[in-house]
From TrEMBL:
The lineage of its organism: Bacteria, Pseudomonadati, Spirochaetota, Spirochaetia, Spirochaetales. InterPro entries: Tnp_DDE_dom (IPR025668), Transposase_InsH_N (IPR008490). Pfam families: DDE_Tnp_1_6, DUF772. This is Transposase DDE domain-containing protein. Residues 222-346 form the Transposase DDE domain. It comes from Treponema berlinense. Residues 9-54 form the Transposase InsH N-terminal domain.
Amino acid sequence: MAPATKSGQLVPQNHFVRIVSKTVDELEIEEVFARNTKGGGASRYNPVMLLKVMSALKNISLTEQKLKVPQINTHSSGKEKYEKANATFNDRNSYSKTDEDATFMRMKEDHMLNGQLKPGYNIQVGTENNFVIGYDVFPNPTDTRTFIPHLENVQKRLGCKFKFAIADAGYGSEENYDYLEENEITGIVKYTTYEKETKRSFKKKTFNTENWKYDAEQKEYTCPCGNPVPYRKTVTKKNKSGYLQTYEVYQCENCEGCPFRELCTKSEYGRVIQRNGHWLEQKAKVKELLSSEEYKTLMKKRSTECETVFGQTKGNLKFRRFHLRGKEKVGIEWGLLMLGYDFKQLIRLMNT
């Protein structure tokens, strides 16, 4: 039972149920109920009172529903946590709860041999004549996306423009080659499949489309079985950095019944080729450049410079993990380490 108010009434004077009761009473519908009552049977509930109760309950139901809707939209369980996590990602696929600037990556050191992911940073180092001239700390594991910002940062800090940029195959991409060409920097940078493509075994792979005959005028490939693979359409794709890549799509029309189909393609639609003409031109330039003995020598020099930094740091100094957390602090820690490395190189030169 509801507690009585100071005036002795159970329901306050300004409660909405009193308005409902008064409104129903003013309708004077007792006669309507009386005309439609057949009589007989068990005694019934007062129809006027039932109408009041139903009207009041309906109003209560609507009121509660209106109050619940904004609570669902603005105070749902875990919403604030998810919004914070989404903002912390910052174009990444993961982050560590113990160091939100760090991203989960597959490390070269895998003691469990299960490809375990660990939080870490991608450290980029620029060297010249065995001295570290610049470094950067990145949260993304892909080297191709660190090449341009690292190169720009080092040039900005030193106040100069490089004529050459030497890097390993992990940095070779269409976007990076375009950047080097636009900025008139000679890039001695292999691409990922460079070593594989320069071997004889690669050129003997029958079903590799780079070994197929291509007619530039007709815009048509010819498959190993002699069937034409004509041009279908052009598509444009944008990568995470916003760089646009254009592909020409070719599709074979006579894959049905081809004796080599199982060796050529698993697709139910037949063999489909995506040709990036600009990328193929870039790869041809890289092959031509690296065929020169001069550039081969420079490429070999890279392995004795950059790799030495990490070899000395990890192998001799036993520095295999950062002791601080956060990108800024990690940058300071690595910077002090590189400063010590350069001092060591300077002392070595002074003693020779």
